[in-house]
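Today's session is about reading a structure prediction critically. Students often jump straight to the picture, but the first step is always the sequence itself: look for stretches that repeat, for charged clusters, for runs of hydrophobic residues. Only then move on to the predicted structure, which in these notes is written as discrete structure tokens rather than atom positions. Here is the chain we will use throughout the hour.
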Amino acid sequence: MQKRMEQNREAILQSARELIAQGGIKDAQIQAIAERAGVSSGLVYRSFDNTRDVWIELLSEAIQPEGKNLNHIA
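Below is the predicted structure for this chain, in token form.
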């Protein structure tokens, strides 16, 4: 069950990445993310409280390598 939840979460994040890449953050809304990931919007809301939380997760992933580089330099 845990593995399936992680797979769904990754599919949701990947869908959001693709939508943002295609049309910008305005296109990465819950319903569009769910449709692209092939899941229900309810499943998206079980993984994330709202659209902003999806965006924050993606931003955190994107800046994580830079944070590691800055820590190494410091």
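Discussion point for the tutorial: DSSP finds four helices and no strands in the chain.
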